[in-house]
Amino acid sequence: MTATDTAATDTAATDPLQAGFDTTIGHGDRIEPRDWMPDGYRRTLVRQIAQHAHSEIIGMQPEGAWIGRAPSLRRKAILLAKVQDEAGHGLYLYSACETLGVSRGELTEKLISGAQKYSSIFNYPTLSYADVGTIGWLVDGAAICNQVPLCRTSFGPYGRAMIRICKEESFHQRQGYELLMTMMQGTDEQRAMVQESVNRFWWPALMMFGPPDDESPNSAQSMAWGIKRNSNDDLRQRFVDMSVPQAAALGVTFPDPELRWNDERGHHDFGQPDWDEFMQVVKGNGPCNTQRIAHRRKAHEDGAWVREAATAYAAKQASVATAGGAA
Ligand SMILES: [Fe+2]
Ligand SMILES: [Fe+2]
């Protein structure tokens, strides 16, 4: 019987446990895997960390498609390293999720059956090489805005994974920006390619922060639990304010006629993304949803022999160790 089952069947016993949990959260301290936690807290974390892990893994696909077409050995090496980092991020996060009692195998099944989601952004195609730079700059940039506050999230393994991930994400953002800056110093055709790419990715990047606060029903509870530290709209505003001067330095514009500095607020005003499009993409009807999942499923099936061989090897090692111990 797990701690969670105990809590569910013995209501009287949950009060001191709940009080202890509330005190830890109230002090801004961390909950660790062996601590008691409410079922809802555990479920929310599993959903959020799994979705995050899946995003890292699916996010390898749009950029991975350009590894074989990178224009130089240097660009190929950078892109390869970046895509490998994303695989590593997925693994840290699946490991964090395992401490909550859910195996990586179960999570993978939920991803490829469509039962769990990943970030909507990775359902958009990468149509030109400039997209590699734009994804680094805007998509990894938006991820950093979302994830830096998560370094202080209340669940220990998640927060610790985020510290390492954020360091690598900031490298990703800079390599994207540097790539775009190089292209902007090239030919008119290259500059046009960058602007076209930014035009396609700007709105989907804003959608990465999730729906507006008044349409995000789970946010308040996540913030009360210290899982989430800032609201969707606050993070979106931070991202816009950060990106506008970077766009000016690059020499590109964002496709938003409402985007302007508001002196009174001390922030940029900006238009709303197409939230109907966002809901369609989340529901599985984006341009690449089917392709992304089919690719992930095939990779999982193609890797079955590796998992079987590793399991057989581990069993053999264990039996050798047992035989050795008995002798
Ligand atoms: Fe990542
Ligand atoms: Fe990244």
TrEMBL record:
<dbReference type="Pfam" id="PF05138">
    <property type="entry name" value="PaaA_PaaC"/>
</dbReference>
<feature type="region of interest" description="Disordered">
    <location>
        <begin position="1"/>
        <end position="33"/>
    </location>
</feature>
<dbReference type="InterPro" id="IPR012347">
    <property type="entry name" value="Ferritin-like"/>
</dbReference>
<dbReference type="InterPro" id="IPR009078">
    <property type="entry name" value="Ferritin-like_SF"/>
</dbReference>
<dbReference type="InterPro" id="IPR052703">
    <property type="entry name" value="Aromatic_CoA_ox/epox"/>
</dbReference>
<protein>
    <submittedName>
        <fullName>1,2-phenylacetyl-CoA epoxidase subunit A</fullName>
    </submittedName>
</protein>
<feature type="compositionally biased region" description="Low complexity">
    <location>
        <begin position="1"/>
        <end position="15"/>
    </location>
</feature>
<dbReference type="InterPro" id="IPR007814">
    <property type="entry name" value="PaaA_PaaC"/>
</dbReference>
<dbReference type="InterPro" id="IPR011881">
    <property type="entry name" value="PaaA"/>
</dbReference>
